């Protein structure tokens, strides 16, 4: 992502997202592990809070079909523009974008009909890094979408809709969002953790 004249401009072809894709570092990412990827099984994913789009692009880059749900019309337009530019940038990026479906809508209404294997939820929260760029990015995004005061309802719908698991993304050292249910396990990144809530029958696949 870049900042252009004080406004957000999403970029999947360049920057950190493009660099990670070109280097093929996606498979080892903790989000990929939290989503339950295996060598012989790639889940169908819904990113219920698409936001900046980075998580969706990461999961699509390692083979998943991803539905991005974004209820802000302004952010949806930014995502559509970024996906179109990435698709035009190279055949490899176009292949990734072909696995992404961007939908303008509220995840609470959409999830029960979609019934994906995995739902990713990343509620709005304070910046997770100390750089001025990240703080400004998050400030601009927050100014557009506001706060996720209905995240508890979204979690309830997600837990009832996901066939396999819900992955909740939250700052590494922040207190848990939910008292109940508790996650079955979690995967930690450098600045965030991915809490995994299993929803299906507990088998060796989950």
Using only C-alpha atoms, the radius of gyration works out to 16 Å
Which sequence of strands runs across the widest sheet?
A: 5-4-3-6-7-9-8
Order of helices and strands: EEHHEHEHHEHEHHEEE
What general form does the structure show? globular
Largest sheet: 7 strands, mixed
Number of helices: 8
Computed structural class? alpha/beta
Describe the protein's architecture and organization.
The structure is a single chain. Mean pLDDT is 82; it is low at 1-6. The protein has a seven-stranded mixed sheet, with helices on both faces. A two-stranded antiparallel sheet has the order 1-2. A hairpin with a 2-residue loop joins strand 1 and strand 2. The protein is of the alpha/beta class. Helix 4 (73-89) crosses helix 5 and helix 6 runs parallel beside helix 8. The chain has helices at 15-23, 30-34, 54-61, 73-89, 91-98, 107-114, 132-145, 151-161, and strands at 2-4, 7-9, 45-47, 66-70, 100-104, 118-121, 165-171, 185-188, 192-198.
Helices and strands, with pairings:
Blueprint: E1 2-4, E2 7-9, H1 15-23, H2 30-34, E3 45-47, H3 54-61, E4 66-70, H4 73-89, H5 91-98, E5 100-104, H6 107-114, E6 118-121, H7 132-145, H8 151-161, E7 165-171, E8 185-188, E9 192-198
Parallel strand pairs: 3-4, 3-6, 4-5, 6-7
Antiparallel strand pairs: 1-2, 7-9, 8-9
Q: Which tags fit this structure?
A:
seven-stranded mixed sheet, 8 helices, 206 residues, alpha/beta, two-stranded antiparallel ribbon, 9 strands, single chain
